[in-house]
Task: structure prediction
Amino acid sequence: MRLVSRVSYVPVLTLAMLVMMLRPLFMARVFDTSDFGVYSLGLLISSSFCILGCIGLYPMLQRSMPMDIVKGREKAAAILMIQCGLLAMLCLLLGLLIPFAGIRVVDLNDRGFAVSLLHGFSQQLFLVATVESRSRGEPLRFAIQNLLRALAIFGAGWLVAIQFQSVTLTLLTEAIIALVMAAGIINHAVSRSRLQIATLYRLAIKRLGRLPWQSAIALLGGALVGFVLTNVDRWIAASLFSHAVFAVYAFAWIVLAVSQSIQAIISSSLFPAMARDYASNGVRSSFRMASMWGLGLILVGLVGLWPATVVTIWAIREWFAGYVAANPIIPLFYLLAIIRVSDFWTGFLIVAGKERAVMNINIFVAIAGLLLLVGYSMHQAGASVGLLELAGFACLLSFLRQVIIVSYSFGTAR
Result:
């Protein structure tokens, strides 16, 4: 039965990914280019909120919960899950104070910014909720959870967008659906601890001070810098371009969003598996698992690079004529997608307790990228940055980071 579960989850999770991939494509058809740019800004803020990772506790939950469950520490796992939710709520409340400080984040009004933050909180809470099914080695249950969320968000969001032509209401609808589903999953997950929910919340709050905050902050720092590396191009585009031009870049960025979704889907099962393998067989076995998946996906990506590029450019010309300006950057984004979808070595380093090294590598690459960008700007003597330059900059940064991460992983496993 367990073998069937491990095999059958793949098409279910793939379907969930396809539904979520279709969502921005349908929104690009429903909204005009300017409104789609606003929708994409909302998703950018949402994903930026998620990278806070409950102030570093989310990656810690991913690493610790499989081990806690194996060792029968259900209460410890439930408490850490609740602590993640509480800290995510704290991040939301602090984020909502930003408009009151007179700070304008890109070109969104206060209401749009607040709804985007709520959207990010809902996605973060759903990720926290589904760690439990992944940690128990139940990928089919995890896949079904994601498919139900994808179908609900796609269906309700699309209906609201068509009916009201409102970006804010669409994002709010998506957020509410994710919140309701996450709350139900968390309630079911923590019930295995056999303690009342009120007791678990009291223990979670009481034990916040006992958490290994040094490790959590290191994980947060590494995640923040890593997010900057993978999203700095979108933030630059959001800051420099109008909503309509940003919409073109965000439309092409769907390729990267899909690749990162694929990577996240595989990692959702592979990361706990690497953690269990590391605990049972040691560092070299875990490294071999990460390398097998990473090199395999690089090979698959290179084989499919040319046909995928040709088909995508044709599809944009046929069905999304308002976004044909994105076609020149599609090949670069597919190269970048191959790099990002194959990065399982970062997960290996986190499993091996090298989160500080990951943070240092990310910081080094971020500084190198900043110097490169400044040097390019000075060389161009103030000339404006275009879509192609931004895409090339993102591709170069990811390639540099991948080379360093793989090299360090190899050294760790020796």
About this structure: Confidence is low (pLDDT under 50) at residues 1-5. The CA atoms of residues 39 and 167 lie 6 Å apart.
